[in-house]
Amino acid sequence: MSEILRSAKSQLEAAFSGNGLIQTPIKWLSVYKFDADTAFSGVYEPSLCVILSGSKSVQMGASQAVSYACGDVLFVATHLPSLVRINAPYLALKITPSPQAIASVLTRVKLDLPASQSQNAVVKTELTDELISAVSRLVGSLKKDAAARDFLAQLVLDEIIFILLNSQASSLLKSVFAMGGVEAKIARASKIISSEYANKIDLARLSRELDMSQSSFNSHFKRITTLTPAEFLKRTRLLNAKELLKSQRLRASDVAFMVGYNSPSHFSREYAKMFGATPMGDA
After folding, report:
1. Are residue 68 and residue 86 in the same domain, yes or no?
2. Do 46 and 103 reside in the same domain of the chain?
3. Are residues 67 and 19 in the same domain?
4. What are the tens digits of pLDDT across the range 52-87?
C-alpha cells in the first residue's frame, strides 16, 4: 500500500468508530468498517467500492462469488441482489454518485459511446496512482468546513468519474448512463424492482413502460444482471427475508408477507431451495 493511501486509511480509522456502514458528512460517501468477520445479504446499489484493508467475497446475481482484496476497486452499475462475506479487519470507501453526476461528466467530456454492448453490470479493477491521489484528496476534504468540504468533494467526484471513464469500467459506464440506451433501461428496471420488491410487480407492464418487448427485456436484463427479471425479483425478496430473519425476532410467515409473498408455504419452499435451510432454521 502506498504511503498516500496508508495516510487516507489512518484518517478514516481515526475519524470513524463503530462497525458496519457509516455515513460521512458527504451524502454520496460512506465507509464500510468491520473489526470481525461477518456476512450479510441485500441489494448492491450502483456504486464504487475502494478496499483499503481486509477482503470480501461477493456473489452477485447468478454469478459465482468473486473475491476482492486491499487495493481492489469494485464498480457496480445497477442494483444487484448479493451475498457478501467480509474478512476483517475490513475498511472500504463506498462512493455512490448520482446518475445525474455521471451523465454530467459524460456530457462535458463528450466521449463516444462504445460500439459493443457491455457484458454485465460489474467491473473489478485495481487502484491506479491517479485514483489513489483522488481518493486521498476526497478523504482529506472531510476535515474541511462544510462549504469547503462539499465544494472540494464534488470536484474530486467529477475527477473520479473521469478516471473511471478511462478505465476498464469505461464501456459499462457509458452504456448504462447514456440516456435512452438499453443498459440505462435495465438499470432503471433493476432500481424499480429493488425498491418495490415487497409490492406486487407486473414485469410485463414494466417492460412496456420501458418500451421493450417482453423477450428483449428478459434477454437484456439477464445479460446485464445475470438474472431474468423474475429471478431478480425472487432473489431480492429472499435475500431481504434472510436479513430480516437474522436481525429481528419475527415469524417466518410474517417475513413472507413483508417481502412480497402471498403464501408462507411457497416462501418457505423457495427459501429452503436457495439457502439450504428453512426460514425458521435461520431465524
Report:
1. yes
2. yes
3. yes
4. 999 999 998 888 788 999 999 999 989 999 999 999
